[in-house]
Amino acid sequence: MTPLDLQFKLDDLLDEPRPFRGEIAVEALDEVLRGMIGELGYRACGPAVVRGSAYRSKRDVFIEAEVSVAVGFDCVRCLDPLELTLARTVRHLLVPGKRETTPESEVTVEFSPADDADEDLDCYEGDAIDLVALLREDILLELPMNPTCIEAQGGACPRFDEVLAAPAAGPEPEVDPRWAPLLDLKKKLS
After folding, report:
1. Which residues does residue 69 pair with via DSSP β-bridges, in sequence order?
2. What is the pLDDT of residues 138-157, one digit of tens each?
3. Is 71 within 8 Å of 43 (Cβ atoms)?
4. Nearest residue to 49 via CA among 32, 71, 77
């Protein structure tokens, strides 16, 4: 049996687990990663590799996937460019549902009357199942909010003390332009 892609139809699934595999393109990852932590933002260093299995029980779909991806970022303490590799196993239960867009451009999810399920459940519409958006969200949720050298290298920033050290009297040292707004604030407060 050939593995499924990350986009498949409900009819492709059986009561027994069926393997799937695929990649989430760099462009698709960058759509959700860029701007997450401002100018220091995350950037995909390559596609996310996904392997897993899916099966169904009536109309419910059970997903288990291993996701691995390399993500670049600038340390929020020392501004050094770094890379973080994520490798996680995720599990999801997808239930049939209907997505509607309200006039305020907010997305709401309505479950069918037979489902008195929790609002935290993921849903699919029709008979098409697309795991890309779901797995991109999993990647996003695994990333630290303020990434430092600790997450990438397992140790403290090698230049952290240098960055915090007060300069001696004399000409002002050249400042990385990303720190300029903080330097302006420091001057206003002094």
Report:
1. 86
2. 999 999 888 888 888 777 77
3. yes
4. 71
